[in-house]
Design a protein that fits this description.
binds flavin-adenine dinucleotide, five-stranded parallel beta sheet
Length: 560
């Protein structure tokens, strides 16, 4: 196996440990002569330092094919060392180097550490005594499946809310990862390599081998290569929110020469990023997943030179003369001539007893995509009657035993697109329960049952359930704009003609022109997409408004 690192170093290693520096060097020299081109030869002079090297290699995702250990070493003898090395690399072939007098110990080691070979010192000439042994072991090792895992690795507890959030965060940011349950052997090995006791989970191991214990989103973002810090203090345009409206604005803004930065709280894509298949977006007759659309839009924005910052929560907007200042949760801020608010909406939480406790442990808001694999062959419940709930049902039905959509109203047709209602009707393992609401849930580690109430009769019933996904409408989270821009009673931002009351401009409006179509009550601050009052709540209209807001930004800048 000749997998190499970017600098050309082989990633499959042969490790040798001997406390006598002269012997250690000699073994490594002989190994390097024959195997150095295809394998990395790692040499250590104590059991402890060899274990450290093995841990680091494990975190980096390197492979170890053969470990050769001297038997007589102080502090930790070769058998003790190999026993601990097995916890990290159980598949590596194990060789004990012994003097003739220690043959009995070597034979005992065959049972203790499942030794593959013991080699008597001296091993000269290596062509006769060393290489045939190592050749055979390498061949045996290669015959088994030893693929490297180059991606980010997450070791977490199956039912921990934070472990689930971290998976969701990486998935939505298109960062490939591999998941390991902390109580499975490989998860335990990775924790051992990271010297983590497993009490604080998840542990995230980056592709270059750094172990992050219970990382925050921003820590995670910066370590997996996502930008989190602005490169300038002043921009032409700050776009707040990285959903379709924000990405659309960033693409048009940057492609038309505006110094543009997009600031996103969690992951680009917004609600659309969580959609398994958008079937009604122009130009995609076979549908497109939210993740694909987001990935393309994000690359397109970057290609035109827009900066895209993730894990930055905007908590304030101020007017300072002609500058518009946007403040982040950490107190820092950036300025620009103009701002586009594209903050969309967020799922409402369902206030039923027990649900908050079970969130991330069987109860999820959105996130059907990340959890789909875990629902295989299980009974799944979905709450919601809009398209988002319908798409999730169609997607989850591919693996789940059954999917039940719970709707408060008397029919799906009133709230879901016709094409989805038809699809659902034709999928045998999806059923729809109308006039039903969730009034409670219970479980120990994980969701076990739901209480359902029939809204027409008032009767309640308990059903066994391990999975509940909620898509129950959404609210704009715009409290931080209170007192700055005009909002309607639900918090949606009012713009353009909707701001005029009886032909009069909004309160405090000092310009001798009326607000432009998507302009808010603050000149130079625009709104696009779902966050706007009376918006269409569709991907296409959000993208279109993002583009249109940029056109109005140009008009505003011309008159500045
Ligand atoms: C599962 C699902 C399926 C859907 N399917 C379809 C479909 O098939 N067809 C269709 O047309 N529509 C569909 N929709 C609706 C569509 O996705 C939305 O209308 C669209 O995403 C709105 O885009 P937006 O950019 O305005 O807002 P959003 O997509 O809500 O994006 C807003 C972004 O702003 C960020 N943000 C919010 N506040 C802040 C802040 N203070 N600081 C920084 N960032 C912030 C959020 O994190 C979010 O990423 C679906 C929605 C869902 C949830």
């Amino acid at each position: 196996m000749s997998v190499t690192t970017p600098d050309g170093t082989p990633r499959t290693a042969i490790v040798t440990v001997d406390d006598d520096p002269g012997v250690s060097r000699a073994v490594a020299r002989d190994l390097r002569r024959r195997y150095g081109e295809q394998h990395r030869i790692v040499r250590a002079e104590s059991g402890d330092s060899a274990l450290d090297a093995l841990r680091q290699m494990k975190l980096r995702g390197d492979q170890v094919a053969v470990i050769l250990a001297d038997y007589r070493m102080p502090q930790m003898n070769g058998i003790e060392f190999l026993e601990r090395a097995m916890d990290i690399y159980p598949g590596a072939k194990r060789v004990l180097l012994t003097a003739y007098a220690d043959t009995d110990a070597a034979i005992n080691a065959i049972n203790v550490v499942d030794l593959d070979h013991y080699l008597l010192k001296p091993w000269d000439p290596p062509e006769e005594k060393l290489y045939p042994v190592v050749d055979g072991l390498l061949e045996a090792w290669l015959a088994t499946d030893h693929r490297r895992v180059p991606e980010t690795k997450i070791v977490g507890h199956r039912w921990s809310a934070r472990s689930s959030e971290v998976r969701e965060f990486l998935a939505r940011n298109q960062v490939p990862y591999r998941w390991y349950a902390s109580d499975e052997p490989e998860g335990e090995r990775l924790l051992e390599a990271a010297q983590a006791d497993g009490r604080r989970l998840p542990v995230v191991i980056t592709p270059d081998g750094e172990a992050l214990v219970e990382p925050s989103d921003s820590e995670l973002a910066s370590r997996v290569g996502l930008a989190t810090t602005p490169s300038k203090d002043f921009y032409d345009l700050i776009v707040i929110g990285g959903g379709p409206a924000g990405l659309g604005a960033a693409v048009y803004g940057a492609s038309e020469g505006l110094r543009t930065v997009l600031v996103e709280r969690t992951a680009t894509g917004g609600q659309a990023g969580q959609s398994s298949r958008i079937e009604n977006y122009l130009g995609f007759p076979d549908g497109v997943s939210g993740a694909q659309l987001t990935d393309r839009a994000r690359r397109q924005a970057a290609k035109f030179g827009a900066e895209v910052l993730t894990t930055r929560d905007v908590t304030g907007l101020e007017v300072n003369g002609s500058a518009r200042s946007v403040r982040f949760a950490d107190g820092s801020s950036i300025d620009a001539h103009t701002v586009i608010l594209a903050t969309g909406v967020s799922y409402r939480r369902l206030a039923a007893p027990g649900l908050d406790d079970m969130t991330g442990r069987g109860v999820y808001y959105g996130s059907a995509l990340t959890e789909a694999a875990a629902c295989k062959e299980h009974d799944v419940y979905i709450v919601g009657g809009a398209n988002s709930a319908g798409q999730a049902a169609v997607y989850l039905a591919r693996g789940a035993k059954s999917v039940t959509i719970l709707v408060r109203g008397s029919s799906l047709e009133r709230s879901m697109s016709y094409y989805l209602v038809e699809q659902i009707r034709n999928i045998p393992n999806i059923s729809v329960r109308t006039c039903t609401e969730v009034t409670g849930c219970a479980g120990d580690d994980h969701l076990e049952c739901l209480t359902l109430r029939d809204t027409s009769t008032g009767e309640t019933e308990q059903v066994n359930a391990q999975w509940l996904f909620l898509f129950i409408g959404a609210a704009p989270l715009t409290d931080w704009l209170d007192g700055v821009v005009e909002r309607d009673p639900l918090g949606f931002v009012i713009a353009g003609p909707d701001l005029s009351v009886e032909g009069q401009p909004p309160r405090g409006w000092a310009l001798d022109r009326a607000p432009y179509h998507l302009e808010t009550s603050v000149p130079g601050v625009f709104v696009a997409g779902d966050a706007r009052a009376e918006s269409a709540k569709r991907v296409a209209s959000a993208v279109g408004e993002g583009a249109m807001a940029v056109m109005l930004v140009h008009r505003y800048l011309e008159k500045l």
